[in-house]
Write a structure and sequence with these properties.
single chain, 228 residues, alpha/beta, 5 strands
């Protein structure tokens, strides 16, 4: 089975751009490589429900408990499991633009202390145990400030699942800062997570090429064997 490489980060951090660049770079080196993006808005029943949630149709963020919200995202991956396993069997590497790590950070960020820890454990039991999803071999976290996140989200083109400039989560800067910190805490606890800075020490954006080069240098040594 091909290796799973997940690209994570808060909204606007460049996950989509870097996932596509990594896929292209690995393909150019002879690896059979596929790209899969989550959530799969409109492609699954749960993905459609996620779009409705992000459009505020279930109420404000405070009105939806994070444990309930996490089921939507886990369900989207469960519906996508046959596709994911098929891609994994046909390729050397499957690059994932968001995976289970997004669910952990986005939902656990709304809780503190022991409640946060219990929710993280619960989500992983559901995604990996109950739903039987494969675990990512490597996760790359692109770290970006919420100030830059808001700016870059505002530059995004129209998206299929929402008519808003920023969806329910993207519009809440305080929430995104909690998500960012939660991501960093999770990464610090796990040996197969690596953090790539999206900014310079002076707080300026790094170039797409610089970030992509860092990601590639982390990924290449982790890919077992040679291209098939």
């Amino acid at each position: 089975m091909g290796q799973l490489i997940a690209i994570e980060g808060i909204d606007g951090s460049g996950k989509g751009t870097q996932s596509a660049r990594l896929t292209q770079a690995l393909t150019a080196r002879g690896f059979r490589t596929a790209l899969l993006q989550f959530p799969r808005y409109g492609a699954t029943n749960f993905g459609t429900a996620i779009g409705e949630f992000l459009n505020g149709q279930f109420g404000s963020l405070e009105h939806v408990h994070p444990q309930l919200a996490s089921v939507l995202y886990a369900g989207d991956r469960f519906e996508s499991k046959p596709l994911l396993l098929s891609l994994q069997s046909e390729n050397d590497v499957v690059v994932l633009d968001r995976f289970v790590g997004s669910n952990l950070a986005h939902q656990a960020a709304r809780l503190e202390g022991e409640q946060r820890r219990r929710l993280i454990d619960w989500i992983e039991r559901v995604e990996f145990g109950v739903f039987g999803l494969p675990q990512a071999d490597l996760t790359i976290l692109i770290d970006l400030s919420t100030t830059w996140s808001r700016e870059l989200v505002s530059r995004k083109p129209a998206r299929d699942y929402t008519s808003r400039t920023a969806d329910l989560l993207e519009a809440d800067t305080s929430y995104l800062e909690h998500v960012r910190r939660c991501y960093l805490d999770i990464a610090a606890e796990r040996s197969n997570w690596f953090v790539v800075g999206g900014m310079t020490e002076q707080g300026e954006l790094r170039t797409v090429e610089e970030i992509g080069d860092d990601i590639l240098q982390i990924v290449l040594p982790s890919i077992a064997g040679q291209p098939t």
